[in-house]
UniProtKB/TrEMBL annotation:
The chain crosses the membrane at residues 285-306, 318-337, 920-943, 955-976, 1048-1072, 1078-1099, 1111-1131. Belongs to the glycosyltransferase 2 family. Plant cellulose synthase-like D subfamily. This is Cellulose synthase-like protein D3. One of its GO terms (biological process) is cellulose biosynthetic process.
Length: 1149
């Protein structure tokens, strides 16, 4: 079936909701959301403005019906109405709340935090007050935060009062009583927007500046009114440049004014060869060829060994032989599942210089050189400020805001699933400190751009720094950061004291009112709910410190606050040192958009934990910024490499990048003990398994540090999905492509949005509301995100590309209706009767939603890429305590068991998933079941020593040769894997040790928990892993030595006890036997020591810190006592026993 055209797709998407409404297929929804503006007066009351009032005040009949049909030029796009710019100021200073059966409210906040906010983009920024009596509004200001003074008398007036004066006061200034020279709000704001970027010369007075601007030419709208619009002048102002091939291309000598710095000659474009953004770096054949050969050899030897074991049973101990053979068969199967996907490892490299040349350098499609990179929405998730310290989250936010990516293309969304005021004010403090930190990082090229990490570096901070004022700037910023940390640390007490004070005031007011009503009657104590109060003296709409109805973690309204409004399209330089803490006169001080989001939660609705919070952010961001790419980070994972997003964008924008669903970065951790006792770094997985999967269909999604393509999260199929067969291993055995004639003849733009489980099924766009919900803005944003996420069509081999310069247009400003729609899509009811969590967004139903989400994308035919940067892209924290680590592994393993018993099992994968990729996902679901066989195998040496038997009849030459070959091939494979992956042998050994520790504890518990959920329907709940705030006074590794008891420790402790006792019993029996069976003793003791060597880190963790005497010491003392007593019994058996068979009492029946 032929695909729909792209234009038809857009049309269908825009009308989909209307079609569904006409069919009465929309689920029952609460009343339509309505935006209410409220401005606080000096008396404490609020004056409400409806949306209709705002539109009627801002609109004018003179300007409504005139339209100029003028083709936009690259550097002169159609201007947004100034009324939208003014309304954006309201949006950025308003706290939007709403949800189920409630009105969407926009609460104007004069104050977000107790400290001063001085950045013009920040919510609640300090500004001049309106001089009209009785009005406490803020004076009009431009994008730099400077006051807009429409009259020469410098009378400050707010936007509302200015509109009233123009409408009812005949344009007379309330200050000097003179007629306004500029009686149009649009003209006044447009003139003041043309302020110079750098501070004006000291010789020019403020009055001169204003008069010079007021005497400027008429505004664009005024020219529209007269009808004498000069198109030639418009073209001349833009240098008449529409791109390469234009008839008005500049001459060789440049323009008449001689200023041709921004224009590049066509010859320069012609001489530039096309270069790719990324390269594949294959593993040297001297390493990978023997590696693959050894895998095949070991598979053959394992098959021969298992066949020999089955044909040669131990008739003296059939039970021992049977258990060992079953375990060995499973281990061989598990090893094959783990090893086969490693046949095709690859490395990749990016070229950031090429990225800059293509997207940020003047070219025929982008003569001005504005950034043509697509937008990125960064998601940061947090849930509990007690376990995830706000200082850690704030540092993550600061590293994002300071990232080396176009400011206007970057937006950061913080998901606070707990709805805590502490997190809200901590984010506001971070936004305030970013006013200094981000320009400082840009000026001196700071790395890393996490202030806590940067100021904790042990190396010389002045290395490679060339600006003479660096030391002075660093000292000042360090002092400000210390004060910032103190403010963050004091927020809990500050919020508590503030709430207590306001609560006491409310009680006094209520008591006074009660006394006035009942003058002669005794007054009873007034009981008022103890609310949590914001800095502006109003109730916090989220979770209160003292839980109450509609104000608890599982029951609160949806909240959206634009902490930093979207930046302007043009660079905005700071001011000199005489007016600022550091000299920022040549530094762009703009900040990316920062939005605080707390989705609505109500009892009776399943919130789906982190996956539900991520899906709420996907919908809200699609309406507010609609970045075609999404970067997901945990609150404790910060950007360590400021160019990490550019590195990921190289893969997305390269040839064939439109088929990449996500770019996964490796996880790197800080604060881990030097020996990495519990394999927290997990380098074997991140540098071994993930590189190998990159050679197949791509790495799995691991929950953080991942750059997504938005439409891949929406559940669409990749472009040209039918042209690619599943294949076996493309790098080893080639790729076989199968192209259908109908698909090959269909234009690329007609195959942009496809969705369906079968090869011939197209997405029915009329049913889009049933999939994505009833938000028209959300549905309309889908084709826009798809188009903006395409690579450049700068080469004939680039399919499904876009023209250069298409993304240089400024984004639309935010307005109240947009935020109201965002409030609607984060409501608790929005996902009802939709595909969110089923086919769209993060997938529900598993505690490891990350693996399932990546699996669904690969199952639809998408590819993923593993991006290992020279400098770590992101860094985070990991639990170094044994108990915390086991609980973390338990959560992962439980999710794998859930996957195995769900429809996400790799056995049920589609034909679009490659065979080896399917084996990798199959291993993800099966590996916890290895724990059952592993724990049995760990007891086999002890049972062998107790019974005096072994898994084989005798240690003959055949068994020893097989054992030697298997061991040698395993060691050789480990050495070669260390070579191509870049890990160390010690890290490989630590991974092997923790594999057995986790397999005998957390994995076994996960199997039972998963079976209980599948069979009995018992829900599984996990506690949030606590993150350390990094207190400098504490020992860095204090958690490492802390012993926290958990039932997961019981199986490994029992294994250690039993094997130690068995060794003692076996040695004593053999020594004092008349006919010592040394071969059986040697086999049993060797395997017992093998088990104990793997459990050594676990035993070391139980001992706690050196110099202390934990309770476990007494437990070990008891074990030693038992061992000695058993030895005594073995050496001196009871009288009357058979003296010829020492230790016969230990025989198994």
């Amino acid at each position: 079936m032929a695909s729909k055209s792209f234009k038809a797709s857009i049309s269908d998407l825009s009308t989909a909701s209307d079609v569904l409404d006409s069919q009465n297929g929309k689920p029952p929804l609460p009343p339509q959301a309505r935006v209410t503006f409220a401005r606080r007066t000096s008396s404490g009351r609020y004056v409400n403005f409806s949306r209709d009032d705002l539109d009627s005040e801002l609109g004018s009949s003179d300007y409504l019906n005139y339209t100029v049909q003028l083709p936009p030029t690259p550097d002169n796009q159609p201007s947004n109405p100034v009324s939208q710019k003014v309304e954006e100021q309201y949006v950025s200073s308003s706290l939007f709340t709403g949800g189920y059966n409630s009105i969407t409210r926009a609460h104007l906040m004069d104050k977000v935090i107790d400290s001063d906010a001085n950045h013009p983009q920040m919510a609640g920024v300090k500004g001049s007050s309106c001089a009209i009596n009785g009005c406490d509004g803020k004076a009009m200001s431009d994008e730099r935060g400077n006051d807009i003074l429409p009259c020469e008398c410098d009378f400050k007036i707010c936007r509302d009062c200015y509109i009233d004066v123009l409408k009812t006061g005949e344009g007379i200034c309330p200050g000097c009583k003179e007629q306004y020279k500029t009686t149009d709000l649009n003209e006044a704001l447009e003139n003041w927007r043309s302020l110079p970027q750098l501070p004006p010369p000291s010789g020019m007075s403020k009055s001169d500046r204003r008069l010079s601007l007021m005497k400027s030419s008429k505004s664009f709208l005024m020219r529209n009114q007269t009808g004498d619009f000069d198109h030639n002048r418009w073209l001349f102002e833009t240098k008449g440049t529409y791109g390469y091939g234009n008839a008005i291309w500049p001459k060789e000598d440049g323009f008449e004014n001689g200023k041709d710095d921004d224009i590049v000659e066509p010859s320069e474009f012609m001489n530039k060869p096309w270069r790719p953004l990324t390269r594949k770096l294959k593993i040297p054949a001297a390493i990978i060829s023997p590696y693959r050969l050894l895998i095949v050899v070991r598979m053959v030897v394992l098959g021969l060994f298992l066949a020999w074991r089955v044909r040669h049973p131990n008739n003296d101990a059939v039970w021992l032989w049977g258990m060992s053979v079953v375990c060995e068969i499973w281990f061989a199967f598990s090893w094959i599942l783990d090893q086969l996907p490693k046949l095709c490892p690859i490395n990749r490299a990016t070229d950031l210089n090429v990225l800059k040349d293509k997207f940020e350098t003047p070219n025929p499609g982008n003569p001005t050189g504005k950034s043509d990179l697509p937008g990125i929405d960064v998601f940061v998730s947090t849930a509990d400020p007690e376990k995830e310290p706000p200082l850690v989250t704030a540092n993550t936010i600061l590293s994002i805001l300071a990232a080396d990516y176009p400011v206007e293309k970057l937006a950061c969304y913080v998901s606070d699933d707990g709805g805590a005021l502490l997190t809200f004010e901590a984010m506001a403090e971070a936004a305030s400190f970013a006013n200094l930190w981000v320009p400082f990082c840009r000026k001196h090229r700071i790395e890393p751009r996490n202030p806590e990490t940067y100021f904790s570096l042990k190396k010389d901070p002045t290395k490679n720094k060339v600006l003479t004022d660096f030391v002075k700037d660093r000292r000042r910023v360090k002092r400000e950061y210390d004060e910032f940390k103190v403010r963050i640390n004091s927020l809990p007490d500050s919020i508590r004291r503030r709430s207590d004070a306001y609560h006491a005031r409310e009680e006094l007011i209520a008591l006074k009112e009660q006394r006035l009503k009942k003058e002669d009657e005794p007054v009873e104590a007034v009981k008022i709910k103890k609310a949590t109060w914001m800095a502006d003296g109003t109730h916090w709409p989220g979770t209160w410190l003292t839980l109450a109805a509609d104000h608890s973690k599982g029951d609160h309204a949806g909240i959206i606050q634009v902490m930093l409004k979207p930046p302007s399209d043009e660079p905005l330089c700071g001011i000199g040192e005489e007016y600022s803490m550091i000299d920022l006169s040549n530094v762009d001080i703009r900040l990316p958009m920062l939005v605080y989001v707390s989705r609505e939660k109500r009892p009776g609705y399943d919130h789906n934990k982190k996956a539900g919070a991520m899906n709420a952010l996907v919908r809200a961001s699609a309406i507010m910024s609609n970045g075609p790419f999404i970067l997901n980070l945990d609150c404790d994972h910060y950007i360590y490499n400021s160019q990490a997003m550019r590195e990921g964008m190289c893969f997305m924008m390269d040839r064939g990048g439109d088929r990449i669903c996500y770019v996964q970065f490796p996880q790197r951790f800080e604060g881990i003990d030097p020996s990495d006792r519990y394999a927290n770094r997990n380098t074997v997985f991140f540098d071994g398994n993930m590189r190998a999967l990159d050679g197949l269909q791509g790495p799995v999604y691991v929950g953080t540090g991942c750059l997504f393509r938005r439409i891949a999260l929406y559940g669409f199929d990749p472009p040209r999905a039918k042209e690619h067969s599943a294949g076996f291993c493309t790098c080893c055995f080639g790729r076989h492509r199968k192209k259908h004639a109908a698909i090959a003849n269909t234009p690329e733009e007609n195959r942009a949005l496809r969705m369906g489980d079968s090869d011939d099924e197209e997405m029915n766009l009329s049913l889009a509301p049933k999939m994505f919900g009833n938000s028209n803005l959300l549905i309309d944003s889908i084709p826009v995100a798809e188009f903006q996420g395409r690579p450049l069509a700068d080469h004939p081999s680039v399919k499904n590309g876009r023209l250069p310069g298409a993304l240089t247009i400024p984004r639309e400003p935010l307005d109240a209706s947009t935020i109201a729609e965002a409030i609607s899509v984060i409501s608790c009811w929005y996902e009802d009767k939709t595909e969110w969590g089923q086919r769209v967004g993060w997938i529900y139903g598993s505690v490891t939603e990350d693996v399932v989400t990546g699996y669904r994308m690969h199952n639809r035919g998408w590819k993923s890429v593993y991006c290992v940067t020279k400098r770590d892209a992101f860094r985070g924290t990991a639990p170094i305590n044994l108990t915390d680590r086991l609980h973390q592994v338990l959560r992962w393993a439980t999710g794998s068991v859930e996957i195995f018993f769900s429809r996400n099992n790799a056995f049920l994968a589609s034909s679009r998933m490659k065979v080896l990729q399917r084996l990798a996902y199959l291993n993800v679901g099966i590996y916890p079941f290895t724990s059952v066989f592993l724990i049995v195998y760990c007891f086999l040496p002890a049972l062998s020593l107790f019974s005096g038997q072994f898994i084989v009849q005798t240690l003959n030459v055949t068994f020893l040769i097989y054992l030697l070959i298997i061991t040698m091939t395993l060691c050789a494979l480990a050495v070669l894997e260390v070579k191509w992956s870049g890990i160390e042998l010690e890290e490989w050994w630590r991974n092997e040790q923790f594999w057995l520790i986790g397999g005998t504890s957390a994995h076994l518990a996960a199997v039972f928990q998963g079976l209980l959920k599948v069979i009995a329907g018992v829900e599984i709940s996990f506690t949030l892993t606590s993150k350390s705030a990094g207190d400098e006074d504490d020992d860095d590794f204090a958690d490492l030595y802390m012993v926290k008891w958990t039932s997961l420790m019981i199986p490994p402790i029992v294994i250690i006890m039993v094997n130690l006792i068995a060794i003692a019993v076996g040695v004593s029996r053999t020594i004092y036997s008349v006919i010592p069976q040394w071969s059986r003793l040697l086999g049993g003791v060797f395997f017992s020591f093998w088990v104990l060597a793997h459990l050594y880190p676990f035993a070391k963790g139980l001992m706690g810190r050196r110099g202390r005497t934990p309770t476990i010491v007494y437990v070990w003392s008891g074990l030693i006592a038992i061992t000695i007593s058993l030895l005594w019994v073995a050496i001196n058996p009871p009288s009357g026993g058979n003296q010829n068979q020492i230790g016969g009492s230990f025989q198994f029946p």
